[in-house]
Amino acid sequence: MLAGFAPLVLATSVGAQPSPDPVRAGYHLLHAGDKMAARRHFDGLLKQHPDDLALRLGSLIARRGQLDNDESLIPAYERDLNELLRKAEARYARSERDSDALRYLASGYMLRAAYRFEHDKGMWGAARDAAKAKNHSDSYVQRHPDHEDAYLTLGLYNYFVDIAPAFVKVLRFLFFLPAGNRLEGLKQIERAAAAGDLVAPLAQQNLLLIYSLFEGRAEQAVALAERLQQRFPENDDFAMTIADVYAGPALEDHDRAANVYAAIAKRRASDPTLDGSGARYRAILGLAVERFEQWRTQEAIDILTPVIDRGVTKPEWVAPMFLLRRGNLRALLNDPGAASDLKRVQSEFKDKDWRKNALELERWTQDRRASGEAADFAALIPANRLAAEKMWAEARKAYEAVLTKQPASPWAQYRLAYTIFMTESPDRSLARFSSLAANRRAWPSARGMAMLHVARIQDLAGRRDDALRTYRTVANDFDEERAGRLAQVGLVTPYKRPRS
């Protein structure tokens, strides 16, 4: 899977738009954070003008953010998305000089590619749609080079297709896509962000993650995040992207990310709508994740439990997702009761994907307990909390104390090496990381993180070719571990220390 790719592509669908006031008004509602009002606006106008492609696309974009909270909307959404493309294709077939039809073909195909990608509707179909979007975008921009909005769809395609090989282990479908261009794509996205009409906020949202995750431009990402949050304080999707930036590897500012999630949850605390409750529960889940990242594991569990106890039924994803997350956290604490949450998912929810995820997590939990990794990992959480508080001297003493009693503990070895990495010259930790990475008897999760840091040390030393080889090994050998996902980012951009 293209980690980080699908969420970004979701915002490409606006493509190039005309700018009559009714259309602009709908997008202003959407950017302001009121998806339902935007949907009513576009759908009301569509009753009067059913063949208007701009209104059709606006309605689809407004509805796109509601699908996860209400799956009953999906059949109509798919039908209307296909109808947009059918109408645009028919117009373009009548006259290839119809630039409006061309622009909506580009936008519509990219929207369908993103939808198919995220909803697992077929990678090949998504690839074909993305290729069509690219070709139509190229044609449109050649005719209308001054239409700034048109550069978002084209830029996102160029950027992400060029970096995609770092995220995709099986690349066959990429062979059939037109080539991308990362540098040119970034310029195109920046152009849409700076000068676009209807798409500028969406382009800026994409730039947040691009700058922080792939371009090593954390300062610009933070400045842009602050401007976007100030301009659109009610837009939950923008806020959650901003939280992702703060929590990501460029900043690792989990307190700030948690504050963003807490603000969303408070803002939507009494919102009875499905959109509002969906945002509230996503924010609560995000807050729990950030507390775990700070090694406040029991606090994270306590954040999830009231929602589980309320028996939330709408949105439908909330109950199984919260149970899975709590089961995972309890397993990390080596709580034998973790299995009860996972068994509830298997017995109470019909969706086979939820049941499959719960079964896989239960097996993972059992394997960790049987191997001793669960106990080893859980015993270090208090020391990890000291490290999260940047009480490095105290954390180091705690890790050394564990290693005195358990010198073969892989997680203690990793955490001590990490503490040295963060507080001294990175080279001082290289031998420790290398030794753990080479230890075939150590648990893969610890080995993968050790090898990841070997690559990061190589990056910091300016040995980019060595780092790329090591990242590639981590991405291939530990693709199911956290280290594998972080190594994919390392393949795209050299590592930098998090901004303090």
Describe it for me?
With 500 residues, the protein is mostly helical. It is 73% helix and 0% strand. The protein has 26 helices and no strands. Helix 2 (21-32) packs parallel to helix 4 (53-64), helix 12 (236-247) runs antiparallel to helix 13 (254-267) and helix 22 (410-423) runs antiparallel to helix 23.
Features of the shown structure:
73% helix, globular, 500 residues, mainly alpha, 26 helices, 0% strand
Strand and helix map with partners:
Blueprint: H1 5-9, H2 21-32, H3 35-48, H4 53-64, H5 74-94, H6 99-118, H7 123-143, H8 150-163, H9 182-195, H10 200-214, H11 218-231, H12 236-247, H13 254-267, H14 274-293, H15 297-310, H16 318-332, H17 338-348, H18 352-371, H19 373-379, H20 381-388, H21 392-405, H22 410-423, H23 427-437, H24 444-460, H25 464-477, H26 482-492
Radius of gyration: 24 Å
Order of secondary-structure elements: HHHHHHHHHHHHHHHHHHHHHHHHHH
Largest beta-sheet characterization:
none
Structural class: mainly alpha
Count the E strands: 0
Percent in helix? over 70%
Low-pLDDT sequence parts: 1-19
The whole-number mean of residue pLDDT values reads 93
User: How would the global form be characterised?
Assistant: globular
Please give the count of helices: 26
* Quaternary structure: single chain
Percent strand equals: under 5%
How far apart are the termini?
31 Å
